[in-house]
Amino acid sequence: MGNPKAFLEIHRQEAGYRPLHDRIHDFGEVEQTLNTRQRREQASRCMDCGVPFCHWACPLGNKAPEWNDALYKGDWELAFRLLTSTNPFPEFTGRICPALCEKACVLNRYNHEPTTNREDECAIIEAAFREGYIKPRVPQRNAKRVAVVGAGPAGLACADALNQMGCMVTVFEKNEAAGGLLRYGIPNFKLNKAILDRRIDLMGKEGIVFRYGEDLNVEDLTTKLAKQFDAVVLATGTPTARDLRVPGRELRGVHFALELLSQQNRVLAGMEFTKEERITAKGKDVLVIGGGDTGSDCIGTAHRQGCRSVTQIEIMPKPVEGNEDPKNPWPNFPRTLKTTSSHEEGCTRRWNINTLEFIGVDGRLTGVKVQEIDWQPNPNGGRPLMVQKGEPEILKAQLVLLAMGFLKPEHPAYPENIFICGDAANGASLVVRAMASGRQTALCVSKYLKTI
């Protein structure tokens, strides 16, 4: 540990976002970067705690104290080696991870100025690509053939790990390109797809085979892949979004969030859609139903498409404002109010709002009937009871985006050589947890392959 007093002398400094008036006119990444001197100063703030809770909080077990120390001392290559010993794709987590490690950081408890781990790891991996530390690694092969179905973060992490173990890995993806949620769910203003393409190209050079347009069903898996390959890994995510079955759901203008987000990303990639197919917020009043990150992504996308207004409603109560949640104390992740770059761009946010009906004229959405509700303790225990509060009201809207999460998939009984990982196994969660699941599943597959 190079500077044991840095956390007392240097305050947390985030790179921040591009100016609002500039960023809402394009889909370029909104986050900026610090210069090399500032980044090393921020790395010096890591205390190398006796009990590093960042290790515990990170699903990947990232060694933040070790690579922060190397970064502070200017040894970028060592920092890169330490970082990638646990994290296969720091360029993804360094941009979109909610940084569970930072919420568990001792400095977060001390003065709510945790080490800038997420930004530090992004700086490290970008330096590694820039300085040529990253080169294709082609391992010695062991003749075992593994199929990975799904090229999202879990599938990519699993494929990468199995490939480095020497297996011959083929990734089957139903879409036209790899990435899953990273490509078709997360907007470019948070993750430029050139970053994703760079990694996929590297994995291809390392021997992983990608096959696109492969929309496989259960019969394909059990009768074809399971017999052609020594092992099969299902990393198909959570494809079914949670719907809102209220009157008027069939009106034109009511869409799942990913319909908008995936189409916009495809448009930016050069794909063309007809006027009837195109989902756009241009000139419209937009209502986003759901208060999570996907809803936030819809807000930012709506602004860049030229919406007239955006309102976001959430059926649950407003989270605690500030840095601490008394009901969920440190070092657990604080369930506090989160304001994203998209929220800063302009949005009316409301909580404890229940959706009653979609209203339209001639089959097209014009508004949404909602009602304020309250939550009361359930005398029988369990989930609190929802009770009406006040009179229903109508919110003007020509576009509604449903961002209420995804349903956990159900799976039939598979042959013993089929494994499930990521959201397909655990339900919708964070990208970093999907990656951790992919790596863990790769170990399970490796153990199985040694027995056959």
Explain the overall architecture.
The strands form three sheets. The protein has a five-stranded parallel beta sheet with strand order 3-2-1-4-14, with helices on both faces. It has 452 residues and is of the alpha/beta class. The chain is globular and about 65 Å long. Strand 7 (309-314), helix 17 and strand 8 (348-351) form a beta-alpha-beta unit. The chain starts with 5 loop residues before the first helix and ends with a helix. It has 19 helices and 14 strands.
Helical content class: 25-40%
Q: How many strand units?
A: 14
Question: For the terminal residues, how far apart are their CA atoms?
Answer: 46 Å
Structural class comes to: alpha/beta
Spans of at least 5 consecutive residues with low confidence: none
What proportion strand?
Answer: 15-25%
**What is the C-alpha radius of gyration, as a whole number of Å?**
23 Å
Keywords:
five-stranded parallel beta sheet; 14 strands; 19 helices
Question: What secondary-structure arrangement, pairings included, does this model have?
Answer:
Layout (H helix, E strand, L loop, with lengths): L5 H4 L10 H4 L12 H9 L8 H5 L6 H9 L3 H9 L5 H7 L3 H5 L1 H6 L5 H15 L13 E5 L3 H12 L3 E6 L7 H4 L8 H13 L3 E4 L5 H11 L2 E4 L19 E3 H12 L16 E5 L3 H13 L3 E6 L26 H4 L3 E4 L1 E9 L2 E13 L8 E4 L4 E4 L2 E4 L15 E3 L2 H4 L4 H19 L3
Parallel strand pairs: 1-2, 1-4, 2-3, 4-14, 5-13, 6-7, 6-13, 7-8
Antiparallel strand pairs: 9-10, 10-11, 10-12
Helix pairs in contact: 3-5, 5-6, 5-10, 6-10, 7-10, 11-19, 15-16
